[in-house]
Amino acid sequence: MSLRQYFHIGIIVPDLVAARARFTELLGSEWGPVLDYEIEVRDADGHEAVLPNRMCYSTQPPHIELIVESPGTPWVCNEHSNIHHIGFFSGTLGTDSGRLDAAGCPLEIMGGHGTGRPDGWAYHRDLLGVRVELVDEALRVPMEEYLFRPPSD
Predict the structure, then answer these.
(1) What is the per-residue pLDDT across 24-67, written as a single tens digit (0 to 9) for each?
(2) CA atoms of 135 and 113, how far apart (whole Å)
(3) C-alpha distances in angstroms, 23 versus 26, 108, 144?
(4) Which residues pair with 112 in a beta bridge?
């Protein structure tokens, strides 16, 4: 399988409210719900952690994912660009993750604890500093139904 059609760009921001307002002003973006939660992750060496995450998506494809900066995690602003990752759905998450790793784009962190394949998603970090995020195809419908829709009033 080839990863050809991305569905979102992840951008790290210091202030979610200000970033949403700015992208709405610039691009006319509408936003889905803000999620505030802790996520179980493990890195390429098998170290496990529970990390804070606050984020939201724009409602129109290709989606903009805004993630609040969180020092000590992969979600930090950097000196080059705050474009954090390019996201792709994958129907073969473990296989695609292995292929990226073999192509010199090593696994940085993935969803889940324990051993085995990534659970739901995986970040691979390229030498350019931009990550490729693989998201399990099984999450497409729930994401479309919840994350990519404006909150109802």
Answers:
(1) 987 889 999 999 999 999 998 999 999 999 999 999 999 999 99
(2) 16
(3) 5, 28, 20
(4) none
* Number of domains composing the chain: 1
Residue 26 per-residue DSSP state: H
- Indicate the pTM of the whole model: 0.78
In a domain, 76, yes or no: yes
Query: Residue 29: inside a domain, yes or no?
Result: yes
What is the span of the domain harbouring residue 82? Answer: 8-147
* Stretch (H or E) spanning 98: helix 93-102
Buried b (16+ CB within 10 A) or exposed e, 33-59: eeeeeebebbeeeeeeeeeebbbbbbb
Enumerate the β-bridge partners of residue 57: 65
Structure tokens at 18: 């200000």
